[in-house]
Amino acid sequence: MLNMKCLIKNPLVHTFQMHILKILFDSFTLGRFTSFTEDGCPDGYMQIQEASRPQVGGSWCGTSWGPSIYYSETKSITLIIRLLHLSKEQNNYNFDFRMAYKVLRKEYATVRYGGMPPSERPFFKIRPMPYPVNITRGEDTNIARPTKAREYYLGDLISGTYCSRIFSDCDRKNCRLQSPNFPGVYPRNLTCYYAVRQHEVPQGKHALIVVKQPNGQLISIRSQKALYATNQQERGNSGRELKFWEQCDEVQDYVTVYDGYTTRDPVILRFCGGGVSVPEAISSGPELLVEFTTSPFGTFLQPATAQSLHGFQLEVEVRFVDQQSPTYAKNKRACEFWIRGTGRGVLEHPQHSLPPNTTCLYHMQGIDTSGPSGKNIFYRRQFSAPRFRVWFSVLKFYVTNALNPNLPEDEYCGSHLNIWDGPMRISPGCSDIFCDKDRSVQMSRATSPQSVIVGRPPTNATLVARFCRERAPRTCEHALLRRSRACARTESFLSKGDSLTLELKLTQGTALKPVFFKALYEFVDLHQDGEQWGHGPCSRRFSSRSFPEAPPDPPVTFSSPRDVFLYGRGGNRNISCTYRFEANPGEVVRLKIWSVRSGGRLCRSVHSAHSPWFRCGGEVTAAVRVFDRPWKDSGPGVLRDCLCSDVFDYEFTSTSTVAELKFDVVNMTAMDDFRSFGFEASVEFVRVESHCEDTHRVHGPSGELLLYSSIMGMDHCDQRPWLIDPSPGRYLYLRIEGSIIKEPDLDNFTLLNNITVAPDLRHMCRTQNRIAVYTGGLSPVYICPLPPHRQEEQSVEIFSDGWIKEVDPLAKHVLAPPPSPDHFDLDWPRSLSVELMGVESGSYFVTWLELSRRQPTEHGGVFALSGDCRYRCPSIDACISPALWCDGISQCPDGADERLTQCSSFMNAPFHYLTGLIAFIACIAFIVVAATRSCRRRRSALQQRLKSFSSDTAIFDEKEVIC
């Protein structure tokens, strides 16, 4: 038995401090190689020791026909060769090797240390120019300063170890994780730890560590025992294959990536082999550990074509994500996320790698976190009236293969995403949509890192959908585009209660089989201030609860609805909300409004030129209007202010016990919601001492109203508007001496510069007094009045809005039938209210007339002729009350009700009477004409007879009559 030991050292290394040794094993034969793990070198072995590094005890043996290169880590190495058994056959040598070495300068070892090779470096050093050089387009920009390749940061060697290293703050360094002696042959019987930690993290961010290698040529780890290629497939593959998990147990040379700083943390990737790129392995926190393990025995002979590189090199990258976002698991042992609140957001897959057989839970619950109840999550057994509902839309979901995306998954719906309606903490049993005898739902009992569970958690969650690579039941892909329409109900999910749970189940690690999904979630707030009023979806009522003896109630804050389904993003184009405020007798309503949002539309709240109120100028498609209700539910609301932008310190006090606020938006887009349009306000019921007993309400078929103002001052009760209330089924016609004066149009300069001063319009009217007529429209009709008995004959005629069929579409939407349960009149308002805005002394008359429509004939819907309406004013084509007909006062505009042809008894006699009278008069006329003609004939005969006698002998008969 031969026992030979050879010790080979290189004494030249000591003379070069910045150099490494390159040893080339041109041929190597040392005994037999039998195994990588147990007694693999029975005849002899070779060991390599590095200076100032502990001995690891790994052994090399066997036969190699190709060159193998070893690069030292230190300045000196020692090769120990032991031959235990020599072959008995003379023609079979088991000990033969030829070795060459070379001292390599460190600056040439760019594969290991990085930097620019000397052959590519410039011959001269470029100095900075003393003055700037302007380079215009079209000129050659290749004269720019060459960029120098950064050198690698290989970490700090841990004292007492062979190859374990520590890396810190790789966001500012070019960190590389390398196998020992890279790119040469790595030692045997070795375990190296590479600890990567990010110390400096920006505020509000969370660090993730990424290790990867997109260049597959830098990865070559022994992965199979075979010394030769056994089939054509392996020969064609040339050893270029990356293996994972248990596939690396054959040789037990592999790299393991841990999600943490210790080997007790979850394993997110284990690989060996090489030739192809290594996928990204991402930690869930600022710490990551990489372990490199090799088997005790090895041989230089590879089963495929020899490669010049051995071992591995991994790149390190640091990524930062938002700290307050569900993009990383705060607990490494439980992938669980809590999304609570009242807003909305984007939900994506975890940005870090997850180990195989991991289940991630996303607990989404709508809850107002501003109050004390927002500190904990309460799971309720019943969802009878939830305040919030979860609106969830899946934009994309797909599972791919990091090495070959075209490869299908190993099993049907291996990695999938379940959507549960309700809170999920414990498995609900076999309620899966794919549930069968061999497959049931297994919900992991992950423990939340926060103690937020109160009471016994329910288990009645319902599975509503499952997404996997093979199926996507309901998606909303178009939402990925900019300025896209909102997701429809058929493209999304809406929970029945305030909770929704997502269950992401992964059968394989996401480093190899990444799972990508992106979804939109929103907690729809169904809460509305006040109490339900009428049939509208957002009409509310606020009533005073105070008593005369008790102190008054404090102001109550309210706002526009936050239900997204009432706006454009929820599918509605228009919205109209009415807020009614009812005070007790002896109280009035005081409103304060702030934060008026009009969606960026060019509209401003400006002072009216004819009243002390605000009006909306510009694009009035979204506004908050304040109405005074002096007569409660009778007549039109008296419009006071129109707000479409913020007004500093706005306050309104009603003149009666009832006031209303209308919030209206038309022509919303798919991007508009309560964040675009809305308001914030408060209401307070204030007690007053004086009370107006006169209702300022008149009625009747016709009448005249006197409006007057005095500079000596008037009681506030006399300054209230008047209501003219017609009879049921009738409309009003109003006549006022004067002319209509309109509000001036505002140009873009006024709107953009937020100019709210009213223009001076005194030159357009002789008086500063104005008469406002409220017809129920969006704005009153302002009239420049004329005093009575003026020479000018100029008047204004106003009809009820219900009389005129052509109505503004915006007014038709805003002034839709009120949702009051006590009001069933679906027609337009017929009452009119008149108000004198007195600035100077003056008196004016207002006359009104009740009108009714002509009834249609029995043959169809065509209006009858004037015969069906006996008392009709032709100029306005309307019927009036019979009591006004021929009463001595002209009510019709053209005086048709007092004409002689209408009021004479003779002209109003029946037709057959008129026919007989005409016949009688004709007979009398005939008799008179006949008698006249007879008398004329007798007179002419007498004259002829008198001519025949002499005048002296004429004799007259006494009986002769001369006509």
Structure description:
It is built from six helices and 55 strands. It has 963 residues and is mainly beta. A hairpin with a 7-residue loop joins strand 33 (531-532) and strand 34 (540-543). The chain is rod-shaped, with a radius of gyration of 51 Å. It has five domains: 2-113, Sandwich (Jelly Rolls), CATH 2.60.120; 156-225 and 240-322, Jelly Rolls (Sandwich); 329-370 and 386-402 and 413-425 and 477-527, Spermadhesin, CUB domain (Jelly Rolls), CATH 2.60.120; 528-689, Sandwich (Jelly Rolls), CATH 2.60.120; 696-806 and 828-851, Jelly Rolls.
Write the layout of secondary structure elements.
Blueprint: E1 4-9, E2 19-30, E3 44-50, E4 59-60, E5 62-64, E6 68-71, E7 77-83, E8 95-105, H1 110-113, E9 156-157, E10 165-168, E11 176-178, E12 191-197, E13 205-213, E14 219-221, H2 232-237, E15 241-244, E16 254-258, E17 267-274, E18 278-282, E19 287-293, E20 297-298, E21 311-322, E22 335-341, E23 344-348, E24 358-366, E25 377-378, E26 388-399, E27 416-421, E28 453-454, E29 462-468, E30 493-494, E31 499-506, E32 515-525, E33 531-532, E34 540-543, E35 556-559, E36 575-582, E37 587-598, E38 603-607, E39 614-618, E40 622-628, E41 638-643, E42 650-653, E43 658-665, E44 677-687, E45 697-698, E46 702-709, E47 722-724, E48 731-740, H3 748-752, E49 770-774, E50 781-785, E51 795-799, H4 809-814, E52 832-837, E53 842-851, E54 872-873, E55 878-879, H5 900-903, H6 911-947
Parallel strand pairs: 4-20, 10-12, 22-24, 25-28, 34-36, 45-47
Antiparallel strand pairs: 1-7, 2-5, 2-6, 2-8, 3-7, 9-10, 11-21, 12-19, 13-18, 13-21, 14-17, 14-21, 15-17, 16-17, 16-19, 23-32, 24-31, 26-30, 26-32, 27-29, 27-31, 33-34, 35-44, 36-43, 37-42, 37-44, 38-39, 40-41, 40-43, 46-53, 47-52, 48-50, 48-51, 48-53, 49-50, 49-52, 54-55
